[in-house]
Structures are given as C-alpha cells and as structure tokens.
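Q: Hi! New to this. If I give you a protein sequence and the SMILES for 2-acetamido-2-deoxy-beta-D-glucopyranose, can you show me the bound structure?
A: Yes, paste them in.
Q: Okay, here:
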Amino acid sequence: MAIKLSICFLFFAFSLTQIFADESKEFVLTLDHSNFTDIVSKHDFIVVEFYAPWCGHCQKLAPEYEKAASVLSSHDPPIVLAKVDANEAVNKEIAAQFGVQGFPTIKILRNGGKDSQVYKGPREADGIVDYVKRQSGPPSAEIKSAADASAFIGESKVAIVGVFPEFAGDEFENYIAVAKKLRSEYDFGHTLDAKLLPRGESSLSGPIVRLFKPFDELFVDTEDFNVDGLQKFVEDSSIPVLTVLDTDPKNQAYIEKFFTSPRTKAMFFINFTAEGAESLQSKYREGAELYKKDGISFLIGDPDVGKSVLEYFGVNEDQVPVILILRDDNKKFIKPNLEAEHISTFLKDFKDGKVSPHLKSEPIPESNNEPVKIVVRETLQDIVFNSGKNVLLEFYAPWCGHCKKLAPILDEVAISYQSDADVVIAKLDATANDVPTETFDVQGFPTLYFRSSSGKISQYDGDRTKEAIIEFIEKNRDKSAQQEQAKEKAEEKPAQKEQEKDEL
Ligand SMILES: *[C@@H]1O[C@H](CO)[C@@H](O)[C@H](O)[C@H]1NC(C)=O
Ligand SMILES: *[C@@H]1O[C@H](CO)[C@@H](O)[C@H](O)[C@H]1NC(C)=O
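A: Thanks. Here is the predicted structure of the protein with 2-acetamido-2-deoxy-beta-D-glucopyranose bound:
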C-alpha cells in the first residue's frame, strides 16, 4: 500500500524557470557532472540534495537548506551542504548512481562518497542543522551525565542506549555496527552508568540495550547482541502496539512506518464516538498485545481518515466496525460489522490459518447481454476458467484513456464472434476486483489475456485493432471437434483443385 510522501516524482518532468535571485554569497555548493566526483571524494562527510527546479517541495526547502548550510559552515570542522540539479540531462547519471527516485532526495555521503545514506531528518533550518550535526558525529553518543541523558532521551522520541561495563568487546562492537546501520532513523547512545538513565532498573552494569519510547511500556531491554537480532529488536520495539491512524502530526511517523513495514497489517476501523466504541477498542488492544510477537502490526483508525484503505479492500462505511488484515503475502482478510466479543476469536482464527482470504469483487451484474461480457472476481472462475471456452479478457481501469479507446474495437471483435459460441470476449475492472496475480501479471491498463478452451494462457501484446486481435484469437484458440472437421474439409478442397489442375 503506497502512502503519500512529500516528494515530487521524476515523471512530472516538465520544467519551470528557477527563481532563486539571491545575489548574496551562497553557502550551498553547486555540483554537477563535471566536478561532483572530484569534490565529493575530498570530503569524509558531505550532504547532497538532488533537486529539480520545477519541484515545489524543493523550492520550499531551498531557503531552509541555505540557512542550515550557513550555520554548518562555521561548525568545527565545517560541514558542507551541496546540491545537484538532477533534472539536467548531464547530471542524471549521478542521480541514478545514488538511486534518486523523486525530488528532493537528500543523501549523506561518507568516506569520499563510498558510503551513502538517505537523509531522514526535518526540512527546516534548525532541524537540518541538528540532524546533520548528529549524523556527522560518531554513530553512538557517549552519555556521561544525567543532563546528557535527559537531553538525549527526551519525552517524545525513540532513543536507544547501550549500557556497557567497558566500551570494548564483541557486544559493544556489534552495538556500534547496528548504530551505524540505523543511525539515520534512530538516536543511539552508550554509557557506563545505568544510574544516569531516566527509566528502568538502574543497578545494571550491562551489557544490555535499553530502548526508550514515548508510548506503550516506555522502555524495553534486550541482551541479544547478535547484529541481526539487535536490529530486529530496534525495528520491532519502536512501533507502537497500536498505531493510531488520525491527523495528529505526532502520529505521522508511526503511521508511515506501519504502512511501509513488510509485516502483516491488521487495521481496525471504528466510529470512535459510537456506543460501545470503548469496549471494541480495549478488546482490539488485547489482541494486539497478544499477537504482536507473531509478526502482526496493529492499527486503529477512523473510517474517514482511512478511506483509501477501505477502498483498497472494497469495503463500505456500513460494514464498520471492521477489521481488515493485509497479510505479508498481500492476501486480504476482513471481518465486517464486528462486535466486541468477536474480536479475539477472529484474530485467533486468523493466526491459526482458519480464515479464508477475502476477494474484492464487484456485485455480479444482473444482466450481461452486451457483446463484451462483464467479469467480476466472483464470476472469473465460471466465465474464464471453467467455461470450456476460448476467452479474451481485458483488465481495465475506468479512468484509463487507452481502455476507452480500445472499448469500441473490442465491441467489434465481440460482435464478429457473436455467432461463435466457443469464443467469449470479456472485461474485468481491475480497480474494483482482485486480480489473481499468480495467473495474470497486470502492471498497466489495458492488459489483455487469452485463455484457450484447453487452458493455455497467453498475453496479447499486438496492435489494438480488430483485425490483429481476431488474427491472434484464431491462431491461439482451440477448435471444437466440429470445427476441426470443417477445417479439414476446407483444406482438402484446394488440394483436390490442385489435383484437378494436374489432371487437366
Ligand atoms: C561545478 O561546476 C559548475 C558548472 O561547471 C559550477 O557552476 C559550480 O560552481 C562548480 N562547483 C564547484 C564547487 O566548483
Ligand atoms: C458515529 O457515531 C455517532 C454516535 O452514535 C453518530 O452520531 C455519528 O453519526 C457516527 N458517525 C459516522 C460517520 O457514522
């Protein structure tokens, strides 16, 4: 499920004139293909923004980025911020090399450009300065005093502190390795003295890692110093047991994390002001506590804020309260019009594999008399797979212009097969019905597939003309026994003619 990110995408590749008419000294270095490698290779640490002049978010960032560059130029040692116009054809290779997909993309380059990492910090000057300073320092900051600790941990973010008897040994090295990997997303610190920390048992001498968070149990410990295990611990424990989908800015980072995570996602949509909402919420939370360890993330939200999720599942507001689950293999599961006492049973049944996946389908049409037959998910099996007919199936989207252009052509094809009971021309709205992805690869619209009566499936990539489509169908269809005979006769005839000719 894609969620909206505040970047402009490359495919809006039109161009506007750049209007930064600032005459004064620029602190942000301008780099291009002629000097990028040379300059980057001279820096142990440099920040590079890939931008496009027409991108609104880039224009908004520019003065903040410049202000931050001016502050950071007097840092000891100075920190350089640079920018590359990635819309310029000559610079596209550099952008591609750093995997730039949208604008602005900011990268932190270390080691003369050998290591790169995505900038995930704020977009206003003070925030940029803060974040970049931390990124330019060691991957984990030493905590030496209670004041260090309270400044580092704070009240409103995730922070991770390793407690060690000495800053050496395998555990410490693995901790630093994880900090290096995840430093763009989390703050890492280390200390010799657990008494400095604000929460938890303070007589520990370690090695132990304590993750502080502003939600749920407020801190959690691990003694797993395996690099992968520690990384998983950090990623899993920094997601709330229950992510709340609303418009509160404080929640947005968690919501983004929820939707971009590869875990199975359970989402509960309820009317928070309706009667009984509280007991629904508390039952759901109990389920979340119970099953979070099974690789399931839980979210609760208002159906209005989650409209696009409901649409994705093909669910209506009158099915609320509803639990929607998107399993890690992209299969959907739903439980509509829930009551509080259903929640734990449903979640348990889901976990035990006892719930069948939900297939999004339009209702079966009451009449289907047009030449091109309407297929919905629920009739796909009957019309396409089990009908024993040769079926040409178009996957379309209602908004798709090429599909609209193809429609009258498909009509003509269908009309020319109206007297042939063995051929069906059909269409399926792939935005309103689930496509069985194990059989059909639908990446764009229209996508045309042909299934012969004996089950051979092929994709149609030819011209979108009546003649080309009919030729394809004739070449790929399976003939009925009757037609085979007719065909043999037809082929015999010219042969006889040849003979006759010979005899003449
Ligand atoms: C890199 O080259 C471009 C154009 O050739 C120039 O405008 C820019 O100032 C150069 N950057 C540096 C840091 O020398
Ligand atoms: C939510 O419930 C309240 C109280 O029953 C009701 O007034 C309101 O219309 C409901 N909202 C929606 C979107 O159904």
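A: Residues 29-32, 34-35, 39 surround 2-acetamido-2-deoxy-beta-D-glucopyranose (ligand 1) (CB under 6 Å). Let me know if you'd like me to explain how to read the tokens.
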